[in-house]
């Protein structure tokens, strides 16, 4: 007997009777039960059953048309149905159960812009345990920084390949204790600062700056970034005026300087060593624990600093995360609230780690 | 006998006598000869000799001050002297001769915004052969797309690490001959197009689209990007109207769509296969020669499409080039002149390959 569904435009679900409840809901986690024998399917679920040949057709209640997969999938061409279907199908193909993140498919669904609740491998909708919240976008959809949330973001590119990103709110921590000298002679140049004869521990233990080639003496000539110098000036380690260094920083990179200084300061306060991330296209590469530069391990994080109101393109997420993965580091976005930039304030940075996920 | 130079503010050079000509010019390629026994050094060259201890001091003619390296380097703190010195010193350290790209240091210097002429390893200023034109910037200096030129770009990051990029104007070529069907049934969705039953060669030989999982039949369900579909529509391969597909493309990504379509079309016309570069953060990954998808090699280029008036941040260059290198591909920037977007025009795309260089 052929199994057909009926699309009810008023409720937006596809209703299926006969033995659909046992075949598709109870044993395979599609839809939710209705009175009697019927189940209700979300359009994506119905489309998947059509695609697999488990449903022969969906009848449009309003028009009486019998829709096959092609016709049903083409019904609402202006929506994101396509990308949602592709991800749904991909995760089903990988052996996961997943349900629309709404009642009555799941009790207590995750909040926010979540499309599906994905269940841990081996678990289904009835087991009461959600693996993660899944959000689906096309590669051309902007992602406001304010919309980042714990869970998985699936990006469907223009050729229907899917990239999964695991997004986790996480505070970085470190364990680099440093003692700082004071009154070091320094010169402010156009876009960097030279420290003429600091104690070598400033570099070798605390990892500030970079010695000029050939001058790694007991008191080396140390070149620092404007950021490092601003931080050191504020602590009277060098004999430059903090305001002058900050002003130069703002001349060079505008308001980005204040944001980066806020994050640099926060990282140092957390006993993390931030160094420039330029070669990786990031703001910082960070070392959680530096005992000495001679025994330096690899940096663990790449940090990108963004204003809290930033909007990301999925393409840039792909690029940042892929590069980080390629050099065995984790990408972290530091979102900075607008502030006066003068003093660090603990509550105004949000930290998000973003990693590739193979579900 | 201590060797000193004299800084002449009027000409901007440092003059050195005694045996400087033989020691520093003839045998080590610094400066250019003056009348009598003297040579003239650019400030960067003089600073390097001070740095190495080959000069004891530079006397400022105007003030009579005797300047050591620290004082001489700090003389003009608002200029790019710092970054120029760092790169000069680095290349010297690596064993290269290099001279300011101006007469009388070199005859017939390279045009444009070039800082130094770097000589091939083993050659010097007197051998009459320039290896490449070198331009030096700090990582915060914007790079207008219009300023790209054959040569090397050295970027000095905020901690004085130097990254060298080799920039080459280069036209991509390919050898993928394809024959296209016509009148294929297709549906335009929100951000992609589905071809319902095209001949499988359209994918397997010509590498258009991506088959939907589980539907790789003799006549597969093929999903195409809006770009691919626009190109195919214009050639009557599919039964959608070109204007409608282009309009959808513009809704999704604005004027970027027309630029990407121009480049996509140009690549296809050159018998190159462009596929989406999303996972690499690029516009396209390209295959020069595709015989069949079954025997597909690796794509060779990552192409980024930019408007001709774009301005790059060195950080983005670092990211793009590093990622390309990490996946063994070459980064190419395609600069597109503003146009009506209706027809491809051969003269309106400039192609620049950008690669990491270890001098």
UniProtKB/TrEMBL annotation, chains A, B:
The keyword Lyase applies. Pfam families: tRNA_int_endo (PF01974), tRNA_int_endo_N (PF02778). Residues 257-340 form the tRNA intron endonuclease catalytic domain. The keyword Cell membrane does not apply. GO terms for biological process: tRNA-type intron splice site recognition and cleavage. Residues 12-70, 185-241 form the tRNA intron endonuclease N-terminal domain. The gene is endA. Endonuclease that removes tRNA introns. Cleaves pre-tRNA at the 5' and 3' splice sites to release the intron. The products are an intron and two tRNA half-molecules bearing 2',3' cyclic phosphate and 5'-OH termini. Recognizes a pseudosymmetric substrate in which 2 bulged loops of 3 bases are separated by a stem of 4 bp. Endonuclease that removes tRNA introns. Cleaves pre-tRNA at the 5'- and 3'-splice sites to release the intron. The products are an intron and two tRNA half-molecules bearing 2',3' cyclic phosphate and 5'-OH termini. Recognizes a pseudosymmetric substrate in which 2 bulged loops of 3 bases are separated by a stem of 4 bp. Its EC number is 4.6.1.16. InterPro entries: tRNA_endonuc-like_dom_sf, tRNA_intron_Endo_cat-like_sf, tRNA_intron_Endonuc_cat-like, tRNA_intron_Endonuc_N, tRNA_intron_Endonuc_N_sf, tRNA_splic, tRNA_splic_arch_long. It comes from the Archaea. Belongs to the tRNA-intron endonuclease family. Archaeal long subfamily. It comes from Natrialba asiatica (strain ATCC 700177 / DSM 12278 / JCM 9576 / FERM P-10747 / NBRC 102637 / 172P1). It catalyses: pretRNA = a 3'-half-tRNA molecule with a 5'-OH end + a 5'-half-tRNA molecule with a 2',3'-cyclic phosphate end + an intron with a 2',3'-cyclic phosphate and a 5'-hydroxyl terminus. GO terms for molecular function: nucleic acid binding; tRNA-intron lyase activity. Homodimer. The active site is at residues 287, 298, 329. NCBIfam families: endA, PRK09300.1-1. This is tRNA-splicing endonuclease. Keywords: Endonuclease, Hydrolase, Lyase, Nuclease, tRNA processing. It is an enzyme of class 4 (lyase).
